[in-house]
Structures are given as C-alpha cells and as structure tokens.
TrEMBL record:
InterPro entries: AAA+_ATPase, ABC_transporter-like_ATP-bd, ABC_Transporter_VariousFunc, P-loop_NTPase. This is ABC transporter ATP-binding protein. The lineage of its organism: Bacteria, Pseudomonadati, Bacteroidota, Flavobacteriia, Flavobacteriales. Residues 4-228 form the ABC transporter domain. SMART domains: AAA. Keywords: ATP-binding, Nucleotide-binding, Transport.
Length: 288
C-alpha cells in the first residue's frame, strides 16, 4: 500500500501566510477529505500538490523516500482542479484520445469512459454534455495514466443530487481499486459517508485531523421524531429535551442505540432519527 507524506508545507504571498507548515498523508485505498472554511488554504494546498505553485518550504515522501520536489508528484498523481475543461466541438471519446496521444499513454478511451459511466455518450459532443457528465469526463481524464493517487478539488460543485451520488459512488469504486484519493468539498455529510480520513484546515493550519473511525464514539446532536407527543419526564438515563413530537439529545452512536431501545420499551418508537454530521460538528467548532 503506497503512501504520500507531506511535511511542513508552507506558502505565503508577500506578508500574508497562506499555509503554515502543514503535515498530512494520502494512502492508497483510502479517501481523505480536506475540509475547511473559505480562505483556509485548501485550494492553495492543491495548487502546490499539482506543481502550479512553488511552496516556501515543504517536503514530500513517497513510501518514505523523499522526492526532489513537488513537481515530481505528477508522475504518481492525477488532478481535477475545479471544473474540467474540454474541446466542446469534439466528442468525449475524441477529447480523451487527444489527451492520451499527448501523454503517450496506452490507455483506451472507451475503457475510461465505461469506468466513469459515460460509454453510451462516447461519441456525443462535449458541448451537449451536462455539468455532471463533464465532471465524469474530467475524472476519466485524470485516470489516463492510471495514477496511484487522485487529487480532486471540489468535484461536486454545481451537480444535482442524482449526479452527485453517482460521483460519490464512483469515488468509492476507485478507492476499492486501490486509488488514494484526496478530495476537498463543502458537502460535509456526503463526504463523511465515504471518507476514511479527514483534514480540517483553518487559517492555513491543521485544526484537526485523523481517521473517521476514531471519532465514531464522539457525541453528536441527535433528534428523534415521533408520531405522538413525547412526555418530558421519561426516564431514559440521558439528558434530553422534548418538544412537540421530538426528542433531542447529545449521544454517540452506541448511546443512541441504547436510548432507542429504552424508548421502545416505554412504548415510544421513533419513525425517524437524525444525527448531525461528525465533520459538520468539527467544522462548526471553528465557527464558534
């Protein structure tokens, strides 16, 4: 399992410090979510990884072996930065064949289009593609050289819910194929469902990072919905508030199971359970 390790990545423009010596890792077979408010430094980090900006400092290691510079990451990474751009008057297949020819790759355009769910639109002009189709074509382009790692900056921007779900499923499929994926997004609940690790940036520094699994035991805001009004004096061994047909409390996943079981024993069965997103809760710690 290959791993990229970024150490002490720093970037500034004039007297303004954008990235303040951050460390993080990208591992094959895992999805790492890079999140944070606007201006946190996410896009700047992506530009450094793509070799578009020279950092003030920083080292990059591939399988514990130091690379000479960030530009060499291009030999191991595929990039989708913001919106994919193609020749609109050419078909999806022709666009990919053009890129394949420029890189001397042995990739097959139809195979790539099939991988991202666009084989039926292979000969359709890109100007007739929807935004979601263009994003999938962008992912096909990223896969031309079969890179070990994918660097994806806001791949869900402007997508309708159905297409967004398709892209999320595609990322999971690529992870299962062994790709190491770093993805930035503001869709915290969606990315939480598929991410293995996360990095929360704030003002150029890592506020919090780790595996999603390590935070599964954290308490989250939970709302349980009932068809009937719930008494405020129920004995469920947890602090809660009751309003109308809802109960609200702070509980971990395991604690929520205990509460629901106790409520069922008391004759109150929720028809819906809402949990706040772990990443959203961590994100909101910055906003307080």
């Amino acid at each position: 399992m290959r791993k990229l390790a970024i150490r002490n990545m720093a970037l500034s423009y004039g007297n303004h410090s954008i990235l303040k010596g951050i460390d993080f890792e990208i591992t094959q077979g895992k999805i790492t979510a890079l999140i944070g408010p606007n201006g946190a430094g996410k896009s700047s980090a992506f530009r450094v990884l793509a070799g578009l900006v020279q950092p003030d400092s920083g080292k990059v290691f591939l399988d514990q072996k130091e690379l000479a510079n960030f530009n060499l990451l291009k030999n191991h990474c595929g990039y989708l930065l913001e919106t994919a751009d193609f020749y609109p008057y050419l078909s999806g297949r022709k666009n990919l064949e053009l890129f394949i020819g420029l890189t001397n790759s042995k990739a097959n355009a139809i195979d790539l289009l099939e991988k991202v769910g666009l084989s039926q639109a292979a000969d359709k002009k890109v100007q007739q593609y929807s935004r979601g189709m263009k994003q999938r074509l962008g992912l096909a382009q990223v896969l031309i050289d079969n890179p070990s790692f994918l660097i994806l900056d806001e791949p869900f921007n402007g997508l309708d819910p159905e297409v967004k779900e398709q892209i999320l499923r595609l990322l999971v499929d690529l992870k299962k194929q062994g790709k190491g994926i770093l993805v930035s997004t503001h869709l915290l609940e969606d990315i939480e469902a598929i991410a293995d690790d996360f990095i929360l940036l704030n003002q150029g520094e890592i506020y919090l990072s780790g595996s999603m699994e390590s935070y599964r035991t954290d308490k989250q805001n939970v709302t349980l919905h009932f068809e009937e009004t719930v008494p405020k004096d129920l004995e469920i061994e947890f602090d809660f508030f009751s309003k109308d047909h809802k109960i609200g409390l702070s509980a971990s996943i395991e604690e929520t199971k205990i509460v629901v079981k106790k409520l069922q024993e008391l004759g109150y069965i929720p028809y819906k359970i809402e949990r706040s997103s772990i990443l959203y809760d961590k994100y909101m710690e910055i906003a307080k």
